[in-house]
Amino acid sequence: xxxxxxxKEPGDLNRLEEFGTFxxxxxxxxxxxxxxNPYRRLFYQQVSKYFDSLIFTRVYFGNEFCQHLIxxxxxxxxxxxxxxxxxxxxxxxxxxxxxxxxxxxRPLLDFLAESAPHTEVIVNDWGVLRVLKRNYPELQLVLGRxxxxxxxxxxxxxxxxxxxxxxxxxTLNEPAMAATLYQQFLTGLAIRALEFDVLLQGMNxxxxxxxxxxxxxxxxxxxxxxxxxxxxxxxxxxxxxxxxVDIKCSFECQEYTTELHYTSPVNKVDQKYFQKGTTVFYTHxxxxxASTFEEALRGRIHxxxxxxGLM
Amino acid sequence: MGNxxxxxxxxxxxxxxxxxxxxVANGAGELYCGFVPREWLAKFTxxxxxxxxSPKGANLETLSDLARLVQEAHRCEVPVFLTFNSPFYTxxxxxxxxxxxxxxxxxxxxxxxxxxxxxxLLALKNLDLKVAIHISxxxxxxxxxxxxxxxxxxxxxxxxxxxxxxxEIQDIATxxxxxxxxxxxxxxxxxxxxxxxxxxxxxHAVGAFCTSMRDWEYTFYAEDGKINPDENRLLEENLKDYRxxxxxxxxxxxxxxxxxxxxGPCGICAIPDFYRVGVHSLKIVGREASPFKKLAxxxxxxxxxxxxxxxxxxxxxxxxxQKLKGTPELxxxxxxxxxxx
Lengths: 311, 341
Hints:
The structure holds 2 protein chains of 2 kinds. Chain A is α/β, with parallel strands linked by helices. Chain A contains 11 helices and 12 strands. Chain A has one domain (2-221, 284-306): TIM Barrel, CATH 3.20.20. Chain A has helices spanning 16-19, 22-30, 37-50, 73-86, 99-115, 126-135, 154-163, 166-173, 180-188, 206-210, 286-297; strands spanning 2-7, 56-62, 89-93, 120-123, 140-143, 193-197, 214-219, 221-226, 256-263, 270-276, 279-283, 303-306. In chain A, strands 5-4-3-2-1-12-7-6 form an 8-stranded parallel β-sheet. Chain A has a 4-stranded antiparallel β-sheet with strand order 8-11-10-9, with no helix packed on it. Chain A is globular, with a radius of gyration of 19 Å. By secondary structure, chain B is an alpha/beta fold. Chain B contains 13 helices and 9 strands. The longest helix of chain B is centred in the C-terminal third of the chain and has 21 residues, at 229-249. Chain B starts with 8 loop residues before the first strand and ends in an 8-residue tail after the last helix. At the A-B interface, α5, α6, α7, α8 and α9 of A face α5, α6, α7, α8 and β8 of B.
């Protein structure tokens, strides 16, 4: 099982060792009021129950949720070269994109194809995948978590898990890519690695793992919904320009996070969500983390990607 | 210029054969619907939807009704498309969906299937039914390469997501030069997120995720740990605006303008642009809507299409469109525009 970490800035690499040390990170985090701290702490607590050590051997860099956050070539180069120097593997994460987004990705893919021909690229858009297959066959493709369309609506999925009939639970637990034809299709595209969110209703990875696919999951947050309209990106815009899909981004998402509090009208359970930039995230409970780690120890999850932050 | 058979079509939602005459008489050039038989509901319950809309109220329930609808539509030379656009189907579901696909094509005679899931797309290709494949907006194909990907899998039409701009649509249309039919959204429901990247349910027990978010309590946090009062006021105002925008794009409580047209999002000002760039079809959303709402939406879109067909200059068409809709403040806000100018 491999541990990976999703980093936002080149400078974060200097904290790689710290991120992998239970004691240090929890002490540092006790000192501020970051709303994500409880989830980081929970992650470290659960890791320490299941694993003797936490060593990140792979760095994820890039963004899944917004083409405005595609890194510059300079930043990509810095992170890649730094990883190489430290002997850490590198994966480049790409978002869903318009034609403009594909244009922005090209120089980055050119660099990777030339300097690091077997680098992994995490793909969250069939168009990006087509470009990679055609123009960059040397890069390794990984199907990102946005390509998995399973229901991940915590308002209902926890309830379904408790009350729905077995046929429903089975359907909600199974990824579409476990279907035979889908698997064959992915194999034909030379895709052997798939990424997922950890779902409240649980997930059945056995079919994919048995077929030889590498399964990765992200912790301790999953995404519920994402889109081109950015609530916080409209902060400084006049009303008629707010909430348009094509705004001039001032990267307000890097400054602010909105925590949302929801009480289910069905079973009165309280839930917390975070809206960051274009995306709403749910958080993982200790039970979700525990079952993820148990699946990893059983060999059905091959990589866990830790996100210290959102976006 | 004439409003002939090759002119842009209006694609209208239908849930009953009883709506057919009304829709066709008022300008629907294409129809789309859903079909959820009772056996599906018995097996998968209301929790697992066969298509993107609720099994109850938005779908036909019997094959005989569907066959009658298609037969009568064909008599009027109007094609009927059927949605199998759930974001995903599992291995266990696929045989059921394929059986249904076979029935709706071979027994009912539908003209196209609207699909999202790659597994279903591949299975349909293998089945080789005599039917066209349209890619749903739920597939979130936002770029030329993604549309080409679906074209290579046998699709002949792509329903563009609501979140592509006029310029992006123009670029995409130019890239395909008519080799892929493009359908764009025209009236009614919006999505606060990208439809295909919103992995939630609209189940009546909880409602749409974006609309339910409007009532949630919130707390803002800044990366540097401090939010001053002015900053907090700005964040509060922006969130309030965002929640009003979500309400606007979700139909504003399903109300109508003083001229009798549905409020909520529309794209009628972009019809001249879509005609110019070669968009094939203009989609009216709302299979679950009342016949009255369907009719009002259709009349509004048809009226503007007729003006474009008659050669009215683009700026005059837009002026006329806004006047006809009768919501000057809403139009000026731009929040109800699928496509902003």
